[in-house]
Automatic annotation (TrEMBL):
Pfam families: RBFA. It is found in: Cytoplasm. Keywords: Cytoplasm, Ribosome biogenesis. The keyword Cytoplasm applies. Gene3D superfamilies: 3.30.300.20. Belongs to the RbfA family. This is Ribosome-binding factor A. Monomer. Binds 30S ribosomal subunits, but not 50S ribosomal subunits or 70S ribosomes.
Amino acid sequence: MESKRQQKVARQLQKDLGEIFQRELPHAFNGAFITVTNVRVSPDLGIARVYLSFLAAKNKALLMETIEEKNKTIRQLLGERVRHQLRIVPHLQFFLDDTAEYAEKMDKLFAGIVIPPAPAEDEE
């Protein structure tokens, strides 16, 4: 269970990272639209697990590698934004959030299910 402090820091990091990806570094990721879907912060606020979702991205694995290469720059930009709120800028760990794709796959599976009509009670 996350503490109130962890939740507040996570929300702030999510907001700031979203702005960094959209406003300050959009050119670095070949025009891909990056959304920060969730952030989880460790109890000591030293590590932030950042979950990302991509739109208009052809190769998501390559994009994740590019983000990992630019981790230091992203952390520096984040540090400039949160320097008055946090004592330590957390180390960032990026993960691919594929819940939207998973939900789409499940919708397709459910749409493909054919359910036969139930037999009438008087037939039994």
